Amino acid sequence: MIENALVDTLSATVKALGTVGAPYAVTGSVASTLHGEICVSADVDLAVRLSLEQARQLAQVLPSRFYRSENMLVEAARRCTMANLVDMTTGLKVDLCVLPSQPFYDRVMQRSRPLSYGADAPEFVTVTAEDIILMKLLWRKESRSQKQWDNALGVVRVQGHRLDWKYLQDQAVALEIQNDLVALRNEAHV
To answer: Nearest to residue 32, comparing CAs of 140, 124, 137, 136?
Structure first.
């Protein structure tokens, strides 16, 4: 289901995050694909909790095959923004999105679960189907990105009535994306 290069890059990144004690969850198009329809992406997105010290340590413990900037990692940890890693062996980019301490993102991390990435592939902590839908709609709130919409729609189409619609509706109200959630559900005919 998931390419070997992606599993290899993820494994190395997750091992380094584990070494510094930084919690993570796979999100973005990879999570959308695992929970829904196939999405094409040139990178892997990880939601992380990263202190300044962990950011400094991460820059040191990542394998040498990764391009990284310690300053960018530290700044991302300080401002709760994004830092990029590039696996020069696989050519894949890893976007580390340092999450702020907010109720929604706290729930996303708490609800994330290990998910198998194929028959013989390892498991990686991944956001739930509900949370990737909400995250995609939240990211789309300002950008109005069709890609974010399509990724969320693919998850709704595949998961349908298995989704926790009460949770989705409650969170959508809190995040002020309830109209988009209703439109998404209608378009998916769920």
So the answer is: 136
Q: Where are the domains of the chain?
A: 4-126, 129-188
Q: Identify the CATH number of the domain defined by range 4-126.
A: 3.30.460
Q: Mark 134-146 as b/e (b = at least 16 C-beta within 10 Å).
A: bbbbbbbeeeeee
Beta strand 43-48 pairing with 93-98: parallel
Half-sphere exposure of residue 76: CA atoms within 13 angstroms, side-chain side: 26
What is the reported pLDDT for 2? Answer: 55
Angle, in degrees to the nearest 10, between helices 165-175 and 129-143: 30
- 164 to 107, 129, 130, 138, 143: CA distances (angstroms): 14, 9, 7, 18, 26
Q: What is the mean pLDDT of each run of 10 residues along the chain (190 residues)?
A: 81 97 96 90 91 98 97 98 96 96 96 88 94 96 90 96 98 97 96
